[in-house]
Structure formats: C-alpha cells, structure tokens
Amino acid sequence: MNFHEYPNTYVDQVNVYVNNLERSKDFYSGMLGLHVIKENKRAITFSANGKDPLITVEQPQGVLPLIRRSAGLYHFALLLPSRKDLAAVTAHLMKEGYPLVGGADHAVSEALYLEDPDGNGIEIYRDRPSDQWKWENGTVFMPTEAMDEHLLDELDGEAWTGLPEGTIMGHLHLQVADLKATEQFYVEGLGFNLVAKYGAYADFISTGGYHHHIGLNVWNSRGIPVQEGVHVGMNYFRLVFPSEEERKEVIERLEKMDAVVEETDDRLFAKDPSGIKFELTN
C-alpha cells in the first residue's frame, strides 16, 4: 500500500535554510547522492529520481544560526524502498566517517538519524510491511528499540551509487510550542488522524492508516514558538491534499480557526499555532 499518494494527505517536500550553500550541496549531492535539479545563487533543489523535488536548501542573506530550543524542524524523514537500501546508506555513511546521531527499530520501521552540516535533523528509514504493524483502538504501536545489529548482513557487495530513485519524503517531525493547540490545528483543521500519543510530550498523526505523516513534540520547544529573524532550519514544508475540493474545505476550516492563509506567486501558505509555515497544494 502506498501511503504517499491519493487519497491521502501527506508531506512531499521540505525547504530549509542553511548558512553555506556549497557545503550543503556537497552533503546532499556528494554524501547522500541526490540529484541537483535546480540551482541558483541562493537555493538548490535536490531530487532522488532526477525530476521530482524532494529537498530545497536556501541561503538567505544574513541568515542566523539554528536555534535548537524553539519550534521548528525536528527532522524530515526520507523513506527508502527497501531494507537493503537502509543497510547500504548506513554502511556508506559509516565508511565515510559521517557523524550519526543514532539508529532505532520502531516496530513499524527501522531508522537512521543524522544531521546535515547546519544541524537540520534528518531521518532515513524503511517501513516494515503495513500488515505487520500493530494497532489497538486506533493507536499504532511504535516503540523505540535498538537497531538490529545484523542490518548490514543485507548487503551484497554492490557499490554505493546514492540514495535510490524510489526515495520519497516519508514524514516530517516538528518541534512545537503548544502540543494541545497544535494537535487541534492538524486534526480538526487539516484533517489528520491522531494515531499515537506519548503523554503531554508528543503526538503522531496521519491519514489513510499510515503510522505517521507528521510527528509533533515539545521536548525542546514547549512555550517557545518560531523565533523572529531568519534562522537556519525550517523555512516551510509542502502539504499535498487529495483534491482541490479537499484543499478548499481545509482552507475554510483554517479561516474559521482564525488561521491566516496567504497567496504568494499563485501558491497558498499558512502557519500553524507555533508559526511553522507550510504550503497547501493538491
């Protein structure tokens, strides 16, 4: 089952600020093997298949350092087609000596965690088949356990050629200022379903029975919305709705919640209660 296409609502692209464009190009293209599909003096767009945008990095003039203790990006997550692909990227990064934050088995998935050179969080993961996920009363079982030490046994000696063409944006995890208000915004406003809740600290939401399209947490950001100024970190993410009708209904709900939806260059943008910007498309 594909959870990242019609009739689901999902994230397909992110745009992040960095403070050194060439260094970011070396990482995303050189280290991860993504394709550059658009480039100018201020921004570079990367793709896994050479045509569909996945990640855009921008270097605004006078960009300020990343603020870790505020609302914004926790990580964006690149979903790989297979477990073998996860083994390949893990082995590659270890061979290159690139610093890793860690790895985990979440029962629904296996994941590797790292940061780009500016500190933007990245997860690279593979999903287990959805018929192996455990659900109870609408809640998905999603623990954090140690990564399988035999993961690299999947390798067959093939040379590293970069992240595979089938790599997509699997999910997004955000740091937010107010978990309750944000949950209401994403569930009642945007139409997501709450599929996992970890006390007063983290929510996971999705559509179509996915384990999560978006994660929300207050571990480092409770009471601290997006800060003023242009900082390294999240600029905006793109949210894809199944139809124009659905998008219009969402916009009506957001406006009733006093959220501001603005049009810029024929594109529609809004901000969540923490001030995190996103694009609404279909």
From TrEMBL:
<feature type="domain" description="VOC">
    <location>
        <begin position="10"/>
        <end position="127"/>
    </location>
</feature>
<dbReference type="InterPro" id="IPR004360">
    <property type="entry name" value="Glyas_Fos-R_dOase_dom"/>
</dbReference>
<dbReference type="InterPro" id="IPR018146">
    <property type="entry name" value="Glyoxalase_1_CS"/>
</dbReference>
<dbReference type="Pfam" id="PF00903">
    <property type="entry name" value="Glyoxalase"/>
</dbReference>
<dbReference type="InterPro" id="IPR029068">
    <property type="entry name" value="Glyas_Bleomycin-R_OHBP_Dase"/>
</dbReference>
<dbReference type="GO" id="GO:0046872">
    <property type="term" value="F:metal ion binding"/>
</dbReference>
<keyword id="KW-0479">Metal-binding</keyword>
<feature type="domain" description="VOC">
    <location>
        <begin position="168"/>
        <end position="282"/>
    </location>
</feature>
<dbReference type="InterPro" id="IPR037523">
    <property type="entry name" value="VOC_core"/>
</dbReference>
<dbReference type="GO" id="GO:0004462">
    <property type="term" value="F:lactoylglutathione lyase activity"/>
</dbReference>
<protein>
    <submittedName>
        <fullName>Glyoxalase</fullName>
    </submittedName>
</protein>
